[in-house]
């Protein structure tokens, strides 16, 4: 079709005009240089992470592994009782564990089958896993080339412990995602303040405040990280030009309010609902109270208590075993320390050292914060809180990549073949590490040598965090399954008096709405019912030493003992049926 002209000028179609007015496309950047990641780079990482996440979920769900940790069961229970309780509402949000994970589970946990099988807690964790991998890549791109950022993200994303935790209601995946993105945003905020990019600085400072609040409401580690990030950004703001300071003053103020709001709100919540603003530190469910309760009278102090040296050894060893197979963790740790030194030498890259903050936090917590940690590699050879070592996984990942990238750059200046071979060996080592951490080599050796052949345990051991969940659930899950059957025998709609603090899994397994329970968690109804349990519940389940057992011992009238269930490591549960229940609430 001929083009129409006016005054001799050729008319252009709107589409052609838009193409002409569009800015020229950026020339492809050199893949061997360091530059910030763009959306086109991060999107494939996120999509691959979604695939990995669902594969992990498929494996974990099909084998019934999502509820191995008692803490995962408890997190789901807290989220469930916000809406399903005798007195639902904010009072059910908790008092020791921070609320954000429970609020994220809230839309999913009200579906009974998702609560029972644990998948309600998996959805937020899987989303956090995807965001964490994207954050790992984005942060690595601040320091290394795309190929090494990919290698770092592969090491992080394929970690079997992280993959397992991402299918549970545990809080580690969420915190790691927040830690990585908080560091990315802090890096960009400092960079923008130094370059007088006011608009970018404002946005990043506000995002930093929001991420800090999210960290504060996720784990107590986040309180320290958030405070450190505020100090870093406040110093960067103070050192910026007068014009930039004036333009971003309000953003700094809002960031400060957001960062401080988290702790203040949590203090207020504890004061209002627990009647002690420091209940999470010194209340009946605090780390201090739990350690005092679980430590046998007259026993020697655990290693690490009041000893920061041993605390450092336990935490760093757990971090090594959580990150790498066999003794490869020592190499990863030394490489990461060297990478930290390299980052310190570069002024802007020092911000990434925020990733090391979990180290002093947990050394203090193990030594003086009543937080024990046991791993099979160190005395006494048991399993407890090994997952805390996962908090160093971002640091081990990013700073090891920084060192390896420097080695590859040095090799490339001498021989391209040597540099390419080195990178291939690193990728091979990442795959080898994943396979070895899953105990695959030991299993293969066992099959070759026969079932009766002796194979070193360290060759066949599964990932440490998963193994801890498996070991510590051996007695708990059968015990709770038996209790669940007894609860179901009470009949539909029966009111049950039971302490859900320690064995929420029994109620979860039975699929009983929490509003049917009389529990110490609903103190208003429990305090009344404890004066005469038989009057307020059709079925009473008392476990040795718990509040229900004490109430039964004080007021046994009207109760007929049906059965006693004992399990090693779990105590004994006594089942009573009321002969005088009148439907009182």
Tags for this model:
61% helix; 7 strands; mainly alpha; five-stranded mixed sheet; 27 helices; two-stranded antiparallel sheet
Describe the structure.
With 585 residues, the chain is mainly alpha-helical. Among the domains are: 284-473, no CATH class; 476-578. It has helices at 14-21, 39-62, 70-81, 100-109, 112-117, 119-140, 146-157, 160-165, 172-194, 198-216, 221-239, 242-273, 279-282, 287-294, 308-323, 328-345, 358-368, 393-412, 416-437, 440-449, 457-460, 464-472, 476-489, 500-510, 523-529, 533-536, 547-554, and strands at 5-6, 9-10, 496-498, 517-518, 539-543, 559-567, 571-578. The strands form two sheets. Strands 4-3-5-7-6 form a five-stranded mixed sheet, with helices on both faces. A hairpin with a 2-residue loop joins strand 1 and strand 2 (9-10). The N and C termini lie far apart (84 Å). The relative contact order is 0.09. The model has no long low-confidence stretch (mean pLDDT 93). GO terms for molecular function: pentosyltransferase activity. Residues 1-34 are annotated as: Disordered. The chain crosses the membrane at residues 45-69, 89-109, 121-140, 146-166, 173-190, 210-238, 250-269, 324-344, 351-368, 388-407, 419-445.
């Amino acid at each position: 079709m001929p083009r129409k002209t006016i005054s001799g000028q050729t008319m252009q179609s709107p589409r052609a005009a838009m193409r002409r007015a569009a800015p020229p496309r950026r020339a492809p950047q050199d893949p061997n240089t360091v530059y910030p990641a763009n959306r086109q780079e991060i999107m494939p990482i996120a999509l691959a992470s979604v695939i990995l996440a669902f594969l992990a979920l498929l494996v974990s769900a099909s084998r019934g592994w999502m509820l191995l940790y008692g803490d995962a069961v408890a997190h789901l229970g807290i989220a469930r009782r916000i809406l399903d309780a005798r007195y639902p509402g904010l009072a059910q949000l908790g008092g020791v564990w921070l609320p954000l994970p429970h609020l994220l589970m809230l839309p999913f946990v009200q579906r009974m089958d998702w609560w029972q099988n644990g998948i309600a807690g998996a959805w937020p964790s899987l989303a956090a896993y995807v965001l964490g991998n994207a954050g790992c890549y984005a942060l690595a791109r601040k320091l290394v080339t795309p190929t090494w950022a990919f290698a770092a993200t592969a090491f992080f994303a394929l970690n079997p412990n992280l993959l397992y935790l991402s299918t549970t209601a545990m809080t580690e995946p969420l915190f790691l995602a927040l830690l990585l993105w908080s560091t990315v945003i802090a890096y960009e905020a400092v960079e923008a303040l130094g370059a007088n990019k006011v608009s970018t600085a404002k946005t990043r400072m506000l995002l930093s405040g929001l991420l800090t609040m999210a960290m504060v409401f996720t784990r107590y580690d986040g309180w320290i990280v958030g405070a450190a990030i505020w100090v870093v950004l406040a110093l960067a703001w103070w050192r910026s030009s007068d014009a930039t300071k004036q333009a971003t003053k309000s953003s700094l103020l809002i960031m400060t309010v957001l960062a401080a709001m988290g702790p203040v709100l949590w203090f207020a919540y504890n004061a209002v609902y627990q009647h002690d603003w420091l209940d999470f530190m010194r209340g009946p469910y605090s780390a201090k109270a739990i350690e005092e309760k679980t430590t046998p009278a007259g026993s020697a102090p655990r290693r690490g208590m009041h000893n920061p040296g041993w605390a450092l050894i336990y935490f760093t060893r757990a971090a090594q075993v959580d990150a790498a197979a066999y003794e490869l963790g020592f190499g990863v740790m030394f490489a990461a320390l060297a990478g930290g030194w390299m980052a310190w030498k570069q002024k802007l890259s020092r911000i990434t050292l925020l990733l090391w903050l979990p180290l002093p936090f947990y050394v203090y917590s193990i030594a003086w914060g009543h937080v024990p940690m046991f791993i099979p590699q160190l005395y006494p050879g048991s399993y407890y809180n090994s997952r805390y070592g996962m908090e160093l996984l971002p640091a081990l990942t990013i700073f090891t990549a920084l060192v390896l990238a420097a080695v590859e750059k040095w090799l490339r200046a001498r021989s391209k073949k040597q540099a390419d071979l080195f990178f291939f060996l690193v990728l091979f080592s990442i795959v080898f590490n994943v396979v070895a951490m899953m105990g695959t080599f030991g299993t293969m050796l066992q099959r070759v040598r026969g079932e009766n052949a002796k194979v070193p345990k360290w060759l066949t051991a599964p990932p440490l965090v998963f193994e801890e969940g498996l070991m510590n659930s051996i007695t708990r899950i059968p015990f709770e399954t038996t209790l669940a059957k007894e609860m179901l025998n009470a009949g539909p709609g029966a009111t049950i008096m039971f302490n859900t603090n320690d064995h929420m899994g029994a109620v979860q397994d039975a699929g009983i709405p929490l509003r049917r329970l009389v529990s110490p968690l609903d103190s208003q109804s429990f305090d009344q019912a404890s004066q005469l349990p038989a009057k307020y519940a059709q079925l009473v389940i008392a476990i040795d030493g718990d509040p229900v057992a004490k109430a039964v011992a004080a007021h046994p009238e009207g109760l007929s003992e049906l059965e006693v269930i004992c399990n090693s490591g779990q105590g004994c549960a006594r089942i009573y049926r009321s002969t005088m229940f009148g439907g009182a609430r």
